[in-house]
Design brief:
single chain, alpha/beta, CBS-domain, four-stranded mixed sheet, three-stranded mixed sheet, disordered C terminus
Length: 385
Amino acid sequence: MRGAPLVARLFGIDVRVHFTFLFVLCWAAIAFGNLHGARGAAFGVIGVLLLFACVTLHELGHSLVARRFGAIVREIVLLPIGGVARLSREPTRPLHELLIAVAGPLVNLVIALGLASALAARLGGTVPNKEFLFAEMDKLGQNALLIWMISANLGLALFNMVPAFPMDGGRVLRALLSFWLGRQRATTIAAGLGQLLALGIAALGLVGQNPVLLLVGVFVFFGAGQELLTSRAQEILAQLSAGEVCGSAALTLAPGDDLGDVVDHALRSNQALFPVVYGSDLMGVVLREDALIAAERLGLRGSVRQVLRRDLPVCEAATPLLEVRDRIIETGHPVVIVEGQRLVGILGAEDIARISQVSSRLVTAGIRRPVVPASEPSSAPRSAL
């Protein structure tokens, strides 16, 4: 993710922090500093850092359970509004989604219980009353930090269990409904309830002149709508096969071509991957970036065989488009579509997005696109530099 440098790697998962997180630290320092001076500013910064450490553990809970069910976790990104665990694919089984969704809030509850035990031990087992807690917060000592973190983790757990997308509670609701109604209908109901709840939150924010509630309402409303669109796109992609939507206009190379031919293509096309075919058989692929790097070292007369790759993803034409999309996300490269050894075409992330958008609009209008058989491959003419 742009603007989010890598800060840690936990259990093989990259943890990134978006640069806007610095604004949260500044806000905390100013807010607490205005009330308690330099000591308050330090408390605010430490408190926010510890809070986002708990957010990281929350997302790690989601990630490790998702990985247990076969998902590939690309990274965890910490944003000012919270954290996001980016998975290669969404869980499709209701039970899996339910367990993944509740894992994060459970982590926060465990942290809160552990910190409450530590606070109780410091107080000699006595139960503090409200006046004592406020008095301790005014001191900004270790007890105050424990109270702050207990409250923050309980707040995270409760807020995330609100039954509205994109919070965990919305996914729990969808998972429960999916057992009886199916995923698509469950998503429609959960997203509708989420948007209704979001309107209520935004209304409270307007009436009470609370900009935070207003922003939360807007965030939840659009998050629920986006989840509905994503679910609809996944349903469409699962029904289509790669061969049905794969065009045959991909530029190809022959084993005897040189790097100058790749440069020629790169100047005239935005294609990032070039299949190398012999007759109608696929021999391998050449990445545009690999060819340009090799051309700097070997010159334009270097052979494409020197940068030929056979390890990039290849899918059969009958593969569901949803699986092709997952392969693209996992590898970060386009996927070559074949029928046996015959090249059918190439599908990349841009193609999947375009197909999803067009198909979604048709489905919304009640139109089902007829299945079209895969076209015969063709090799576009090339010119020499």
